[in-house]
Amino acid sequence: MMSEVLTAPLIGISRHRLATDGKGVTTLVAFHGCPLRCKYCLNDQCHDTEKIFRVVTPSQLLDELMIDNLYFLATGGGVCFGGGEPLLYSDFIQEFCKIKVPEWKVTLETSLNVPLQQLVRIKPYVTQYIIDIKDVNSDIYQSYTGVNNVIVLDNLQWLLSEGLSEHIVVRVPHIPDYNTEEDVARSKSILTEIGVVHLDEFAYKR
Ligand code: SF4
């Protein structure tokens, strides 16, 4: 029996990003699909199968990203997986990381709203996590995203328990019409209490 070829649908590849995903030049690889339905989603094409622009295998993606290898090596950069939700494709990311240039850093932009196993699988390869937590309050999270945040907080605590706090940036947004200054302050306080050390507070635009 032939083994199935691993592929992933993309909504975009964006090269030469500087200072957006941490240190170095990076290429953003944006996956199709997301379990959330955020009201102010900037990448809404990730929910529409007609907006898939490419389906690639790990080695096809590597061939394409190799064009910037020298930039990555000279600046300490690499690849940033976003979307959509990249952890829906953790098996693909795992295979890609096994064949990539070892020096490339791997950044993950995620909501963490996926089963823990998806996270466990790629943990050995990820240099930095950028986590969009929305709001720690479960009612606010549910009304803004349409889903609950139970596994989000469990997953974040698992990463912290693995000693990864220095590799995690948690983004804490002010969400117009959904949370208040006090809600954001409360989220920050709870996140600090559980061991998050890098918080990025900012405001969503409608
Ligand atoms: S988590 Fe990101 S990609 Fe998914 S719906 Fe929210 S903003 Fe859009």
Listed once per kind, the bound small molecules are: iron/sulfur cluster
Number of β-strand runs? 8
At the fourth level of CATH, the homologous superfamily is Aldolase class I
Percentage of residues in strands: 15-25%
Task: Return the string of H and E elements.
Answer: EEEHHEHEHEHHEHE
How would a crystallographer describe the biggest sheet?
Answer: 8 strands, mixed
How many angstroms does the end-to-end distance come to?
51 Å
Assigned CATH architecture? Alpha-Beta Barrel
Average pLDDT across residues?
95
The CATH topology is TIM Barrel
Rg calculated over all Cα atoms:
17 Å
Instruction: Using the coordinates above, name the CATH class.
Output: Alpha Beta
Total helical segments: 7
- How many domain modules? 1
Features:
alpha/beta, 7 helices, 8-stranded mixed beta sheet, single chain, binds iron/sulfur cluster, TIM Barrel, 206 residues
How would you explain this protein's 3D organization?
- With 206 residues, this protein is an alpha/beta fold.
- The chain contains seven helices and eight strands.
- An eight-stranded mixed sheet has the order 3-1-2-4-5-6-7-8.
- The chain is globular, with a radius of gyration of 17 Å.
- The mean pLDDT is 95.
- Iron/sulfur cluster binds next to loops.
